[in-house]
Design goal:
Length: about 350
Amino acid sequence: MMRGRYWIVLAAVPAVLLAADIVYWRMASDRLRGGLKDWIAAQRSQGWEIESGPAALGGWPRAATVTVPSLHMKHTGSDLPGAFEWSSSGLTLSVPLYLPTDVDVSFHGPQHLRIGTVPDTVVTGDTMAAAVPLGQDVAASFTLRASGLRAEPASGPWHVTAGLLTARVALAGGANDGIVFTTSAEAIELPSGFRWALGRNISSLSAEGRLNGPFPPAGDIAEQARTWRDNGGSLEIGHLAMGWGPLGLTASATLALDDQLQPMGSGNARIVGYADTLDRLAAAGVLTKSAAIAAKAVLSLLAGTSDTDEPPEVDVPLTLQYRTLSMRQVPLVRLPELDWPAR
């Protein structure tokens, strides 16, 4: 008799655990769906138009997921510098049932973006996902990951692709302390139909830095830029690395805006393959031939001689002032004037 009860208890334990797991999954899914509803309500209160198909729960037994089909968001008010519109074939929010730390967002199908007067841009990818930390004590941030990425206008002849893309953006502290960012991309193919002096393919590009200063309220863009500058706004690039054709570059810089709202700043760069790079830039008309010759002469003196077959590399200071990029007081190129639109 006791043995029969023992087997009944053993059989009941898995059933109880299974039922508890289902209940836990349902509670987590309902909470995730409720959080999504609260977020949508908050955005609508700030002037966003949001439409979507009915949300569906899933993910058991490993995660709680909410899938939202046909999501469309639009904002045309004065809170943003220009209209913003985003349409997605669908997305899935997912939280692991065990050790949850992030809300993972997977994007499905083509993503359509329209910002201001920029034409509708279609973004597709083999994978496109973002991660947002859970918890009130975590600074607002998100991480974006994508592979096989492709962006092109809905009606246009060009496109740009990237084999891999990772980006992370987070508040540096309070809302007025700026943001920190890191980004990296590989196997970038630039649009055809343009004359790229160093070729269409960028093998790698990465950057990390900090955008300092408070963000002024939306309105006139030139006035926003002026307010940001007057309140100590600056862009610190702690590390920039790029491989593009013959050019290998690592650099750091600090940039700001001058009294004419034009970029200014200074930095330092380590350059590999500078001779071939300067020749190509001069052939494409990016630099004048005299500027390229002067720059090669200065860089050759700084680089010295090498007994190896590797391309020479050199460390050089750079300055940007009055729209002129200079290397050790040798002007390289004059940049076009940055014309700030009203909105």
